Amino acid sequence: MSADKPKIIYTLTDEAPLLATHAFLPIVRTFAGAAGIEVESSDISVSARILAAFPDRLTEEQRVPDTLAELGRLTQLPETNIIKLPNISASVPQLLAAIKELQGKGYAIPDFPEDPKTDEERDIRERYGKILGSAVNPVLREGNSDRRAPRAVKEYARKHPHSMGEWSMASRSHVAHMQHGDFYHGEKSMTLDKARKVRMELVT
After folding, report:
1. N or C terminus: which one in the chain shows less Cβ crowding within 10 Å?
2. Model pTM score
């Protein structure tokens, strides 16, 4: 990345942010392109990070670069610009679902060992462990996004619990919203009893 050819790196993540990317990224590219700025995407989704963790289990065509590590390196350069979208802090159930989906698509990645007993299983568990939780922000922000309270703070809070004060009816707080013509008024939801095909239509 050189200063005479500016570039923005746009991260691809999971779920809703990835869905929004299909609408938002073309807009970013259009505005940036008018200023002569290239917009490059970088996949740091859970599935991409899983594949990057097991290159030894994949074919040459299936291997993907460790984009998160590369972005971590690029953050040390003053000319780096990254649009970092929200990403999930993967839980074990989410990780298991991603592993199953990738295996179903022909990727020979190992199962997640719940109770590793061999050196190989411990190695696999360690690799997957780097994907769990808040794995992205500490790399891109050099740890300063860690909002977890230290153990000493947690212990103090347990010993000295803070109780909520009595709510005063004289409070002037007020929640304002539109009475009609907005999502609050028009949004509807339903719970389906089984998998069904649905059709959504925007009526204006």
Report:
1. C
2. 0.68
